[in-house]
Structures are given as C-alpha cells and as structure tokens.
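G., before I forget:
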Amino acid sequence: MNKIEAIDVNFFYGKFHALKDINMQIEERTVVAFIGPSGCGKSTFLRLFNRMNDLIPDTHLHGQILIDKHDIYQKGVAVDELRKNVGMVFQRPNPFPKSIFENVAYGLRVNGVKDESFIRQRVEETLKGAALWDEVKDKLKQSAFALSGGQQQRLCIARAMAISPSILLMDEPASALDPISTAKVEELIRQLKKDYTVIIVTHNMQQAARVSDKTAYFYLGEMIEYGDTKRIFTNPEKESTQKYITGRFG
Amino acid sequence: MIPYKKNYTTRKKRSQTLLFALFSLMSYSVVGILLLILGFIIVKGIGVINWEFISTAPEEGMTKGGIFPAIVGTFYLIIGSALFAFPVGIMSGIYMNEYAPKGKVVQFIRMMTNNLSGIPSIVFGLFGMALFVNTMGFGDSILAGSLTLGLLCLPLVIRTTEEALKAIPDSYREGSYALGATKLQTVRRIILPMGMPNIITGLILSVGRVSGETAPILFTCAAYFLPHLPNSVLDQCMALPYHLYVIATSGTNVEAQLPIAYGTALVLILIILIVNLLANVLRRYFDRKVKTN
Amino acid sequence: MRKPFERIIEGILACSGYITSVVIILIVVFLFREAFGLFKSPAVEEGYTIALNRTNKVSEDQFHAQTLKLVFDSEITNWSNLGGADEEILLFRLDDLTNYYSEEELGSNLENVPDCINKLVDSIPGIIAFIPKLYVASNFKGRLIEDVAITPKDFLAGKEWFPTSTPSAQFGLLPLITGTLWVSLFAILFALPFGLAVSIYMAEIAHLKIRNIMKPMIELLAGIPSVVYGFFGLVVIVPFIQKVFHLPVGESGLAGSLVLAIMALPTIITVSEDAIRNCPRSMREASLALGASHWQTIYRVVLPHSFSGISSAIVLGIGRAIGETMAVLMVTGNAAVIPTSLLEPLRTIPATIAAELGEAPAGGAHYQALFMLGVVLFFITLTINLAVEQITKQQKS
Ligand SMILES: Nc1ncnc2c1ncn2[C@@H]1O[C@H](COP(=O)(O)OP(=O)(O)O)[C@@H](O)[C@H]1O
Ligand SMILES: [Mg+2]
C-alpha cells in the first residue's frame, strides 16, 4: 500500500522553480533514499512532507502530496497533527537546551500528554529503540549538549520517535558525524524500517546503498530516476544517474 | 497508543491566537506611548514656536521672549563635543578593528568601551566638574561642557566606527595589500571611505544624544540665564535641555512659563526627530547603494 | 620615508584605542580624590564645636554624626544611653544663652559670651553645648569634643540624608540607595512584561514590514532626551497620579517608576529582540517538526535558549534606570526618606547629586559627600556592566 504519494509537484521559492513535475509513490515500511548533487532540491522535496516549507515566506506549491490518501495541503489540515505523524531528523544534531530526558519527552508534552509515568516509560522505550539507553540511562537529567555529536543525533532520532510517527524524514542525518557514529545511525535506520516509513536524504552513495530499499535520483529540481536501490546502483536507466553514482559527475 | 488529549491541537491553537493578540496589543500600546508623548508635545508646543520664539532671548525673568541663546548654546556644545569626540572616537574604532591584535586586546578595549557607555551621565557631570572645571581651571565654560559631553558620546562613536569597519569584507583589504599598498594607505583609501556612510550615521545619532543631555552640563557649563551670547569657549552658555529643566521645575510664574517649556521641549524633540530621520534615511540610502553595487 | 610616518600614525591610533580605559581610570581617580576628604571632615558643622561638662566621662567615640543628631533631636535624653552617668542630657545652643543670662551680663558687644558659656558648661553636669569655636574661652574648663570626623558607618549606614542639619550634617546613604533601588525595581517590573511582549512580537510574530516600522520607533523612544521625559512626567503623569490616588502631591515613586519604565523599554526591547533572533533556525524547526505550535516553540525552546540575552537586557535596563538623573529628579518629589510606599515622594542618588551639587561649596563635607554618592553610583553601574559582560560571555561558550 502506498504510504506517500507526490502528484505533479512543482515548488517555487519566489520565482525560483525549485522542484519540477515530480511524481512519486512510497510504500509503507520501506526506506527510500534521495540522492543527487547539492542544490538539486532533495531537502526542499523532503520538507514538503511535513509542511516545513510553510515557514519560508513567499513559497508556492502546485500539485498534491498525499499521506495515507489524504492531501496534506488541503485547507483545514492541522499542521501540528500532521507533524505528529511525520517526524523529522535534521542534518546537524539540534537538541534543545534541556536535559536528555526532557528532549525526548518534548514531543509528548507539546502534544498535551500530561501523564508523567507514561512519559517516563515512553522515554525509556524510545531511548532503547534508538540504542541509546545504555549510554545515557544514568545521566537523563544532564544537559543534552553534554553528549557527543553521534549521541546527540541518535537522541534527536529518539526525540522524533517518541511521539510514534508513522513516517520519519531524515535530511543527511549522518553528514556531520564520524564513521563510527555513522555506522550506529545506519544500523538504527535499518531497524526503524520495521515500524516506520523512512525517507533519507544523503550525499553518501554507499550509505544509500547500505540502508535503502528504493532510491530516487534528483538533478536540477527534477526527479531523474526512481527505483529499487539495487537496480539503480547496478543498472541505472539514465545516463545522468550513471554518471552521478560512478562519480564522473560535473 | 499514546494517550493524546482530544482537541488538544485546537485548544493550543486558540490560546496561541489569544496570546499573540495580547502581544501585538502590548506592542502597539508601546508605540502608542511614544506617539502620545510626541503628539502631546507637538500639539502643545506648535502654537508657541514662531520665528520670534527661536530668534530672541528670554525676557522678564524668562516669562516672555524666546530661547535663542539656548539654541545657540546647544549648537556650540554639539560642535565642541564633536570636535573632540569624532576624531578620537573614529581613530579608536580604526585601531580596534584594523590594528589591535585580535583576541584579548580587542576584547579588553571593547569591555572598557561598554563600561564607559554604562556610566550614568551624572557621573560624567561630576567628573567633568572635578577635572575640567576645577583641576584644569576652565571654570564653568563651553569648553568644559563640550569635553564632558564629548567623553559621554565617545563610546557611541567608537562602537559605530568599529561596526562600520567590521562590515567591510577582508577581501578588500587583501586586494589592496596585493597591489602593494601599506596598511595606512589601505585604511585611508579603501577602508575609511567604504565605512564612512555607517560612521556618519553613528555620528549623527551621537549629535542627537549630545543635544539632549542635561546632567553632564549642570555643573560644567550650563547657565540659568545669560543676557548675551557667549564670547569665547571659556564663557558659560545656556542650553536647551537645561533651559527646559529650569523652566519646568523652578518657574516663578507657571502660567506664563509653561508655554515656553512646551516650545522648548518641542524644539528638542524636533532636533531628535530630524537626527533620527536623517540617520535612517542615510542608512537606507547607503544600504541600497551597497546592494546595487 | 614612509615607515616612520606610518609608525607615528599607528602610535596615535593605539593611544586613542585606549582612551576609554584612560577615561575610566581618570573617573575613578577624580571621583575618589574629591570624595575622599569626606571621612576626614568634621562631623560637626564647620567653625563650631561640641562642649561637655568636664565630669562627663562619655567616650569620644560615641560622638559621631548619627548620635549627635539623635541627641540634639532629643531622641536620646540620658547620658546613660551613651555609656555615661545616669544624668539627663541638657541641650544648649547659642540661642539658648538668653535663657540663662541677661543682655547686660552678656555685654553690649557680646564680649562676655565666652565667659558665660564657660561658666554655664562648668556648672551643669548634664550639658551638651553646640557653640562656635570663636566663643570658646581661653581658660575653658569644660571638655571639648573635637576631631570627630564623619565615619564610613555614618555614610553607609546612615538613615538620614540631611546636609543642613545642625549640629551635625547627616550624609546617610540608606534613604537614597533604597529610593534608587525602589524606583528602579518597580520600573523594571512595569517595563518587563511590555519589553518582552514587544521583543517577542517584533522577532517572532510581526511581519517584516511592521517590524521595519516599529524598530526605528523604538530607537526614537531611546533618543528622546531625559528632560523631555521628565517634563512629560511632570505635566501629564504626576497630575494623573495625584488625581487617581487622591494624593496631596503627585510627585512620587510611582511617577518615577512609570517614567523610568518607559525610558528602560528601548534597552530591554532591542537587547532581547536580538537575543531572540539569535536562536538558531534549526532549533525552532526541530520543535515545530515535533508538532509544537509556534507559541510552544517560543515558550519552550526560543525563550530558554535566549535566556542569557534576555537577562542581560533586564540587567542593562536596571542599570539605565539606576543611573537616570533628570527625569527622576523632576517627578519623584525628592524627599530623602526611606520609601515604604510607591505613592510617597522619594529621592534617588543621581537626583540628589544633580539637585545639591550646585549649592555645595567645593571642598566642603557636603561637596565631598555628593562625590561619594558619585563613587557609589559608579561602582553600582560598573558591577552591572561587568555582570552583563559575564552573562554574554557565558552565552557565547
Ligand atoms: N529558503 C530558500 N529560499 C530560496 N531558495 C532556496 C531556499 N532553500 C533552498 N533554495 C534553493 O533551492 C534549491 C534546492 O535547495 P535544497 O533543496 O536545499 O537542495 P539540496 O538539499 O538538494 O542540496 C537550491 O538551488 C537552493 O538554492
Ligand atoms: Mg539539503
């Protein structure tokens, strides 16, 4: 079943045409990787799924984005509700200036969960799910800034998981991390597939090959090719894709 | 599975709308206060101001006549303090941004400049009295008053100069060095001219500051009433803010003097308005010029 | 050819670079120089002395400015309170002379006054006399209390500021400093909610266009001279307060606080708006992406993140309020009493300096006391500046 559908999507920053005629279907509980050279519109496209681009003044969307068959840009859609269902992890770890515990609890609190014992249980559950529990269980009250970069990023993933969204958007989640932390994050993403639909933007082609089921290649605001990761990396249909993945690009 | 409350989203939306409305109301009321003060003084003072008011001296125990000597005095004080503070302040700003070793030295100077700008103006008055009036023997004079006011606005001049120079990208400096120019030549021919617009904006604002200050000139310069204009820098002078203070607080004939006070306040406000307007227009003009370049 | 010239210019620039430091040092030096004599000035009015009966054994240390005032105000009436014998205190001022002696006895040219005083002081054990030094007889048989200087305690802990009080001028800091802190505190309490609301509105809510109009207006508010605020307070706020609270006079701490609140607003607004704007976009986005509303994001993420910036804004605002002179001078009524309510007149340190320095003869105790107030003010504001410096440093790390 299709979890996400993009239909004839065109997106503009002012007059700048950032995304051109994009159509895409994403199945439930798969990992999809977006690849392509910097500035091709991967982040822009990703941020459409939780309406993050709404925050940027003077932007326009033409076309439809459906999640679970509902147009999320329709009038009357509660953006806060949408974002509860579509979690996001950013390029740089961006924990809040709060304790580790409060970082994970944040999403629950802002969505009106008041039951402290539930929150405690849920924080533990999510930190375990993010493979971070053993490292932080003794310092939950400490500031999140005290963690290493890799731990912070996994904390941010846990933070997004805590409100149990069904979709996780990740914008180059490992690009600011060292190789060991990257490996941990990748392992985590493979685990996440069991419960979540994951879209990950990455610069790193090995990473895309390692973690994703499907891959979409973008170039200059267009989606050039989309298909099974294995096929894209072994037998791309388009020449541009071929060039990019073999590193003969530009 | 997560025990979300029903309708929580709509509820938080509603309280947000309410709060934001409150914030904007409070913001507009602050603007309202400003407009109230300005409007009040303009309405009450506009009828008083005419050519005679600004061109004649006070008469009959300051119950009649104009405020010419006070305008002249304030003008002298502006010029005097500018002559001192502008060159010194600009040089100080240049030193900080172009010459001083980055790090500790700059941090120290910046800290001292901030400290100086935090010192209350009455303390400047005390200091000016002790140093310029008594120790250096200038007596109550335009010279002593100008120097005191100059010290007061020094931090403002230094800060705007430093900020103006900081905004100039290093590539210009490197370009100039690459052509074999020395540091001084680079500063004089490239950096200063490029920073000048912003520096000028700062200078204009400091003129506004100087023209409104009372406390520093209370004991260094200001005269209650002078029948004639000052002849030299060692004479006392009248000044607009001090004149307003005197008339508003120790008037003998409130009914006759209140209009004069409104008139004086309006002249002061007009100076500030013009200064701010000029600074803003200049800032915008130069911003646009930089952008189109 | 070029080199030495460049060197010289560089030297001059370096000198002017340190000008602010030099000025601060000079300010400290000169304030202290003028103020320092205070603790060497006699506690008794210039040219006068205090005389006691020679049997009076009260130690000289007891006679400082505050006690003298209490004695001569008849608040202390028995020598035993000062560690002496159980004897009623009898006050004697020069005017009282005619109660004891006829005009003939004093002499037509008052030539017998010293003798009369001498006799009187010698005959009454409980007497304390406040007399001109001129009238102390050469064979004076009483005890003279001389060399009593104003003490730091008189200044720092003195509950009264009364420079013209006789026999001993009172230079007590307490009423002035409490007055200063009192108005400043309330000024900040009034200004803070508005300051925060405006800065949040400008940084987060308002459209760019509205902000671009509001910002110069706030700057204008900062540019209005303090006398104009004082004048506005005097003709609008003071009568208003008088009417609303049915007061005998409208000049009061409340009037001062309101005027100061308006004056502190621009500082609070500009500094905290900057702080709020400095909150990284990524942090806002992270919060919004978790389903938080805009307000939740401001309240739970942006404000905590800009906490130190906002605290510097508050501290700076307090500094502005404490140092403000003219406006406060014009609207607070300037009664040097320790304030107990906002509706009474009070007096601040800067206002005292501004109001009294003109009348204080240079070099006298009063003059020195006013400079001592300047020293106090200087150090209060210096502390505040350094605190802000510290806060900003923390923020950066
Ligand atoms: N806020 C914005 N305003 C205007 N243009 C933007 C903005 N964000 C991104 N763009 C432009 O849109 C294009 C796509 O950007 P982005 O989606 O960030 O690319 P990618 O993530 O693939 O590197 C780029 O050309 C970029 O310059
Ligand atoms: Mg990107």
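The mean pLDDT of chain B is 89. Chain B touches chain A at residues 1-5, 8-13 (CB under 8 Å).

More on Monday.
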